[in-house]
Design a protein that fits this description.
heterodimer; A: 385 residues; alpha/beta; Rossmann fold; 10 helices; 15 strands; B: 323 residues; mainly beta; Methylamine Dehydrogenase, Chain H
Amino acid sequence: MKWSLIVILLLCFFDPLYAQEQKSVNVLYLKIQQQERPTLSNLDPIPQNLGLKGAELGAADNNTTGSFLGYQFQLDVKQFGEGDIEAAQLALTASEANYVLLDMSAKEQLAVITDDQRLFFNIRSYDTTLRNEACRANLLHTLPSYAMRADAFMQFLIKKKWDNIHLLEGNSEEDALFANALRYSAKKYQLKFKQDSKWLLDGDLRRQAAAEVSLLTQKFGDYDVLFVADEWNDFARYIRYNTWLPRPVFGGDGLQSLAWSSVFEQWGSAQLQSRFVSIAARSMQNEDYAAWIAMRAIDEANIKTKFADLATQKDYLLNDVELAGFKGRPLSFRGWNGQLRQPIGLAHQSALVAMAPLEGFLHSRNELDGLGYDLPESTCKAFKE
Amino acid sequence: MIKRLLTLTVLSILASSVVADEIWVSNEKSDTVSVIDIDKMEVVREYEVGERPRGIIFSRDYKYLYICASDSDAVQVMDVESGEILYDLPSGEDPEQFALHPNNRLLYIANEDDAITTVVDTSTKKVIAQINVGVEPEGMAVSPDGKVSITTSETTNMAHWIDTETNKIFANTLVDARPRHAEYTEDGKRLWVSAEIGGTVTVFNTEDQSAITKISFEIPGVHRDKVQPVGVELNKDNSLAFVALGPANHIAVVDTESYEVLKYILVGKRVWHMAFSPDYKHLFTTNGVSGDVSVIDLEKLEAVKAIKVGRFPWGAAARPTGG
């Protein structure tokens, strides 16, 4: 009798997966509001709950598994006004969550992240430096980098043999970052922007796009593709069909390079899309997907390591995880910078055109590593320790 | 001479009136079911059905065909002789796959959008039970003795073991990412579960729900990420298992004793599911992207023919006609 009790107690202790007591996995969703940028058009406002709804769906998905295995995800949401880094830091200190989803700019992330035992997930910033020299050992990125998005475009151009490319760069900080990623990527794939121009018009294009854009693009001479680095879709929406020559537009609201879009319907994604729409009443976007897959990664790390300590979980995520992300391939994290390997979709408003990596872009390790900074080019040192 | 000719004609008329065995295939993106004549190896009929048909299964007497019309949110019942849709069964939302109980009455349906398994009595057309399962249930099976029903859930990565007496889950077993299909051996002792993203097939001992082995696949020249097992079928004496490997465009042939992969057979693009001819001489595979059905000769273990069907063929079921 006594012995059997001890055995039972021991079993409960050593097999947490099937323990009687309900386990709880705490995730903190930390958001700092971003500045609303004035754009020329008033269409397409950015949803206030961008990202957050993806995290909520991820928690709900995880909790279905949890209901069978006896654990529960708790999502604690803390949102702060523009630039309020201090409040975010305090909220982080007060939280006991092991996992933190960061919905803020790259600079703010660097100010908020602490070295203590937590695992952070970047779900908002495409900034390549955050995966390179500014990388942190406890920061994983589920949103792709600018570099990954740029590389997807270049693979497509090579496939199409559209190699005469022109770049038109917008004026925001993000436009510059993406334009730089495009230039770097072009070089990597041995393409070159024949010409490079800055966007200078500042009149109201809603009225005069036909005249102005036509004149501007006439100066560009001939090209196959016009690239527009306009991350806020400020002026790019007025470029299409207003160019001097009949040429396709990439970037802005032309062909887009995306982590996720409502037009992804292959690989079983219809179910994910409809689950998302039913909780958010809008379609799933890049940041929502990044937050959702981050939650799924946390779930997988807990289940597969049987709720081991964070270091073991991180090790599992960086080396062994295979996530089902509705993109036709298993997704995993890069061991050298914590970036989630993932296919990038090239899409317009109503269809997916191609999914990079495109066929033929081979890689000795994983074709997904043709997108973004590969091991030999990476300048991230934090993961080497 | 004339007499002989006449006899020949009569004979040939007789021969053609004997209907050959058939393979029925659902076409996900043309909302039809194609019927392949196994003697002619071509499509002889095509029936319009509900939206996005996926899983199809015959009643045990082959009088009815049950069709999961996913986007119509219905399981349709077709009269096999006439090809007419007789009525819809209540199915819950977005039915994707199902399994028929050996009693020929109960249908276990996976409702992919709702995380529910619905049990429908096909004779009274009533829902008997709805069982909460993991996110995106898909693979369905019923044990040969009818006592256990299986649902695999794609996002929860589990096989749920349901007691068919109580309609309650009595065990949950984790498998690799995105399980899509479950198949019992004829003796009911083993359960094969494929995991699409994990790239593996797990074989369970059904007595205690423990995993016996996990089979991986390696095809020269195909990246392992593209090896995505979906359909699993066992041959007549259960000595071989056939596993459809999705975008790897191959069928793996697995020895069920040693669990070794004996061969990879090249078929069409994005292979989903399979059905044996009633005489077990051929295996038919549905190839979603190439829009055709590959025919595998089971003696040679080679694909011998491709038959064009509708857009995105998905499910397959054999109909013996005694012909």
